[in-house]
Give the backbone structure.
Amino acid sequence: MSTVDTPTRPDPLAVFTELSVALTGFDRVELAGTGLIEQHYDTVLRLIGEREAGHLFQAAADALDADRGDPEGTALRTQVVENKRYGPVIINLIKLWYLGSWYPLPGSYADVNGSTADDVEHVVSAQAYREGLVWIAAGAHPMGAKAPGFGSWAEPPTIVVL
């Protein structure tokens, strides 16, 4: 009996996580700490459609594999980020992680790839706002969402040197 090796498809959620790490500059543990990986993954699926998301995640998986050992991420940049098909979604994904909001994809993207009725500007969830990476990057707290202490917004944020 002969066995045929069939290529294994990468787990889309794992690819989404690895892509998010590459795009945000935060590691897996930091992203998992937000509690938003699955919510953001589901948001992308819902807003661009599962078929288009599948193409994006396959392209990202291929580029991330090609970039192993390349600290510049050349394949990811050229094959996904700068790609006319995926670039607008990548920009929205970065905004989603940092701001907790989804912004409508450009009309030129929708004309070619279609769109969904939910592709409108909106805060994805209260948790997405509270846990947005912008607050960590700024060394601040989301106004009205986490208790940093009375009057804390009156003082400049602490500068974090990495």
Summary: The CA atoms of residues 135 and 141 lie 5 Å apart.
